[in-house]
Specification:
Blueprint lengths: L21 H9 L12 H6 L14 E4 L3 E5 L9 H20 L17 E6 L6 E8 L8 E8 L5 H20 L8 H14 L6 H5 L21 H4 L1 H11 L5 H12 L5 H13 L3 H13 L23 E3 L4 E4 L14 E4 L5 E8 L5 E9 L2 E7 L7 E7 L5 E8 L11 E8 L16 E5 L7 E6 L6 E7 L4 E7 L3 E6 L12 E9 L2 E9 L2
Parallel strand pairs: 2-3, 3-5, 6-8
Antiparallel strand pairs: 1-2, 4-5, 7-14, 8-13, 9-12, 9-14, 10-11, 10-13, 15-16, 16-19, 17-18, 17-20, 20-21
Helix pairs in contact: 3-4, 4-5, 5-8, 8-11, 9-10
Length: about 525
């Protein structure tokens, strides 16, 4: 994220620029623990109480501060009373949000005619009870997006710092931008909240609220990784901004472009298709899909807090540690989901294994049939880590992998519910882990630091093949696939001493090859290993 250097030269806003670290920010949130962060998820309830049906009337004489794009409505008397400095700062923060998001290519809220007294976007400062701010949709605005709406924003009139106000204004104004694209990604508001918390960090990186939100809460993606990403209960949807941060940092080097592209597709796709539009965006722009994203998101979450390695979340060291399901130190070991049965999309668990000696480690996974699963394995030694994917059988959701235990101080099994197109709640699974002597493998070959070899699963295979390979320490290798006539089909340069490669039946030119027998060859130095694989329709 880019650090935002904003300068306020207004004498009415004392100490407005005092930057706070993320850890300092948590105190500003804790002052309102009993308040809903945002009124948007309860907007229907608020309207039943008479709120948001029309523009608000303030308790005292209504005053205005006009900025380039905004009109700030406030009063100095009655229950809604605030200060001129607070109102002025709201306008300054709003203009900074407008500038930053426009630069990043986001659509701004549509014009509302003269509602609010002029054509500017309106922010009302009020005595709100039960929430800190809200963005109300007002009238349909279908150009260019069929479900677009005009809107206005209300923020609380007192009780928060200027730093907190900057995030709050950005959060609610972010909802106004989202409603320009679509007001119809319902019935829940989870992705709206994910995105607005993310926008706070994009606009004012020095007051990022996410670390504070994650600290001290158990209703979040780190303390409860078994929850799905689209959970909209309690405060999870705010903490769920970890998902939008992942999408932004993993898929694109340009700030906020991945999330913006999702909203653009939501806008052009009338109706509620948020999950489908996420999947489509990943496919259109990043050669990925929802299932792959959920798997990588699960891996990234492990590298939070004290496990941060500088290669995952930019601010991962400021987050709490992930919650482990359990840890095993003796073998054979087995278990299940326990009371933390994961739901989809994206619910997962983290099971830790240590104390392998010089043995190989075989991990087997069996997920509940009829649902879509992924199972990843992380091997860690100091700051070094390697990722493996267990290739699961399509109908039984079972699979296993063998990796060199002597390479790692810890191994983490991560089962993930990747089902998103239909319901997948509270799923069950089992796992088993065994050790075997490192001196010889199943074929009787010597193992150790100079061992070269690989495993192919499944075999026979249909859609794709998982090739788990082992290379000598500090050596590189080449994986080649030939047909039975000796024609070279696929080449893959290998740099990891032990890892996995998913072959999706494409040749070096991207063509899908036909069924038949193929020869997989692994070379490293003067060592060569070969194995046949049968591909079926």
């Amino acid at each position: 994220m880019k650090y935002v250097n904003y300068i306020l030269s207004l004498l009415l806003i004392p100490l407005l620029l005092t930057a706070q670290k993320p850890t300092e920010f948590s105190s500003a949130i804790s002052n309102f623990e009993n308040y809903s962060e945002c009124g948007l998820p309860k907007i229907d309830e608020l309207r039943k109480l008479g709120e948001g049906r029309a523009r608000p009337t303030l308790s005292g004489t209504e005053l205005f501060i006009n900025k380039t794009h905004f009109r700030i409505h406030y009063t100095l008397s009655g229950g809604d009373a605030t200060t001129t400095a607070y109102a002025e700062s709201a306008g300054v923060y709003a203009e900074e949000a407008w500038s930053q998001l426009t630069t990043l290519g986001w659509y701004m809220p549509p014009p509302d005619g003269t509602n609010g007294g002029d054509t500017k976007y309106d922010i009302y400062i009020r005595d709100l009870v039960g929430y800190l701010g809200v963005c109300y949709d007002e009238n349909a605005y279908t150009s260019p997006f069929p479900d677009g709406y005009t809107s206005w924003v209300e923020i609380i009139n007192t009780g928060i710092t200027y730093t907190r106000e900057s995030a709050l204004v950005t959060h609610e104004f972010g909802h106004g931008c989202q409603m320009r694209y679509s007001r119809s990604e319902q019935p829940y508001w989870w992705f709206y909240e994910n995105t607005s918390v993310f926008m706070e960090d994009i606009v004012f990186d020095n007051v990022n609220t996410l670390p504070g939100r994650l600290t001290g809460s158990t209703d979040d993606p780190l303390d409860n990784p078994d929850y799905p990403i689209n959970r909209a209960t309690g405060v999870y949807e705010y903490r769920g901004a970890l998902w939008t941060h992942f999408l932004d940092e993993y898929y694109d080097t340009y700030d906020a472009r991945t999330v913006r592209r999702i909203w653009e597709l939501c806008g052009y796709h009338a109706g509620n298709y948020i999950l489908k539009d996420i999947d489509s965006t990943l496919g259109l722009y990043y050669s990925s899909d929802f299932e792959k994203a959920l798997g990588h998101y699960a891996i990234w979450r492990y590298f939070a807090g004290s496990i941060d390695d500088g290669r995952h979340y930019e601010e991962g060291s400021t987050y709490p540690d992930i919650s482990l399901l359990r840890t095993h130190i003796t073998y054979p070991a087995s278990g299940n989901e326990g009371s933390d049965d994961p739901s989809g999309p994206g619910g997962c668990n983290y099971i830790k294994f240590t104390n392998f000696g010089s043995n190989r480690v075989t991990l087997s996974f069996n997920g509940l049939n009829g649902y879509e699963w992924s199972a990843y394995v992380l091997g860690r030694s100091g700051s070094t880590s390697y990722e493996y994917k267990i290739m699961l059988e399509a109908t039984q959701d079972t699979g296993s992998i063998t990796i060199p235990g002597w390479e790692y101080s810890e191994i983490i099994l991560i089962p993930i519910v990747t089902q998103w197109a239909s319901t997948a709640n509270y799923l069950t699974y089992t796992y088993n882990v065994t050790l075997s002597a490192a001196d010889k493998n199943i074929a009787g070959e010597e193992l150790g630091p100079n061992y070269i070899g690989f495993f192919v699963r499944p075999n026979p295979a249909r859609s794709q093949v998982s090739i788990n390979y082992f290379l000598p320490i500090n050596e590189q290798g080449v994986l080649r696939i030939y047909n039975t006539t000796g024609q070279l089909i696929k080449t893959k340069e290998l740099t990891s001493k032990s890892n996995s490669f998913i072959w999706n039946r494409q040749d070096n030119y991207g063509n899908i090859i036909k069924n038949g027998v193929y020869i997989i060859e692994l070379t490293s130095g003067n060592q060569i290993k070969k194995q046949k694989v049968l591909l079926l329709d």
